[in-house]
Design goal:
By secondary structure, the chain is of the alpha/beta class. The protein contains 16 helices and 8 strands. A hairpin with a 5-residue loop joins strand 7 (247-248) and strand 8. It is elongated and about 85 Å long.
């Protein structure tokens, strides 16, 4: 049995859960040994001293220190706290060279964005056990937005542990995951709330819709709906915006009021114009067949067709055209961004795109005059998708 355990995880909630499990199991192995949680400002020297100073009152005990990512070499997780300054690892590494005192267990944790390395990690692996738990893979860029299968499996496992008695209708389960995204901590809290509210009955889609607010919307979600010709998703996004759900721009700043309507209009007008332009450019290049959604939605299409041949040909034409609706640069638009627009263009009826572009001027004027800053935008976009 290893009494020295180091757990590194890419999510803070999942790290907490893993540390609880490890300390509980180790305590059971040591005869229900008490757990001493060390403060976050504990230094490597402090921990070395604790290891080398057996307790007179509790010879069997477990030392728990849940955040030592600044002691190891690892990329920071996106939302993890940042630490500055160097630490002296030598006393701790020296202490680990000796066997842990009889009856002592040590559990260490790190919230980090990649597998940890370094001198301390090597010492922990040599004398104890390293458990690296990476986050499940997100959806691939060419896959539909949302959750990957691995992420969905991880979330379902969290739900079962957080609320073992909760029973969800399939539609409720899907809606809950869609509304929260990959957010383990919030999911655990929301499923417990739903379990209590359901009174032991089946948790319905309606109950999820009523009690669980969606994650903040963003311009990216809005653009994904546009390029995906997703009228249902677009309606849901605009409905949530109208009801006051926070919508954020690319910088993370919150949008609201009339500025929201104008910003969404500008994003939509630019995307629709570019998609119409790319349809016409495909005709010039004799590549209309590549607009077929069944053809360009195949996973290998980007690497086999667009990236080596079609994309560079489009960029060349764009750079030659002074009136092209793309920002001027010496290299032209990125191939990846261009391929998303090209795929989107294939989903739209060309006449509907032309009408939407022609209506953009009057729609902008209506947005600036309307009391309801989203109503003109809503109708315009749904017509474009008809």
């Amino acid at each position: 049995m290893n009494r020295l355990i180091f757990i590194a995880v890419g999510d803070d909630f999942l790290l907490e859960e893993a540390l609880k499990t490890a300390t509980r199991d180790l305590a059971r192995e040591l005869g229900e040994a008490p757990i001493e949680t060390l403060s976050s400002d504990t230094s490597p020297e402090d921990l070395a001293l604790e290891i080398n100073s057996p307790s007179l009152f509790a010879p069997e005990r477990i030392l728990l220190l849940g955040q030592i990512q600044h002691w190891v070499d690892a990329p920071s997780a996106p939302d993890a706290p940042k630490f500055r300054g160097k630490v002296n690892l030598i006393p701790l590494i020296d202490a680990l060279e000796e066997d842990l005192p009889e009856g002592l267990g040590v559990v260490l944790g790190a919230w980090c964005g990649g597998q940890p390395k370094g001198e301390l990690v090597e010492a922990l692996k040599k004398h104890g056990e390293l458990r690296w738990v990476p986050l499940p893979e997100p959806p691939k860029p060419w896959e539909p937005s949302g959750l990957s299968g691995a992420q969905k499996d991880a979330l379902l496992s969290i739900m079962r542990r957080a609320a073992p008695s909760a029973k969800l209708a399939p539609a409720a389960e899907t809606l809950l995951c869609d509304r929260l995204g990959f957010s383990p901590r919030r999911l655990a809290g929301e499923i417990r709330k739903l379990e209590a509210a359901s009174g032991g009955e089946l948790i319905s889609e309606e109950l999820v819709r009523r009690l669980v607010l969606p994650r903040d919307g963003s311009i990216e979600v809005f653009q994904e709906c546009l390029l995906g010709h997703d009228a249902k998703g677009l309606s849901a996004f605009l409905d949530e915006a109208r009801r006051g759900i926070p919508i954020r721009d690319y910088s993370g700043d919150r949008l609201g009021g009339r500025s929201l309507g104008i910003r969404l209009f500008n994003t939509a007008a630019e995307a629709l114009l570019r998609m119409l332009y790319l349809r016409e450019l495909a005709s010039v290049l004799g590549a209309e067949a590549e607009l077929n959604h069944q053809k360009n939605s195949v996973r290998s299409w980007y690497g086999r067709v667009f990236k080596p041949r079609l994309g560079p040909a489009l960029v060349s034409k764009i750079l030659q055209d002074e009136g092209a609706p793309f920002r001027k640069s010496s290299k032209g638009p990125s191939l990846w961004a261009l391929h998303l627009l090209f795929r989107g263009a294939g989903r739209y009826d060309p006449d509907a795109l032309k009408r939407a572009v022609m209506e953009s001027g009057p729609i902008e004027l209506a947005l600036r005059r309307s009391e309801d800053e989203l109503a003109p935008l809503w109708g315009w976009l749904l017509r474009a998708m008809s």
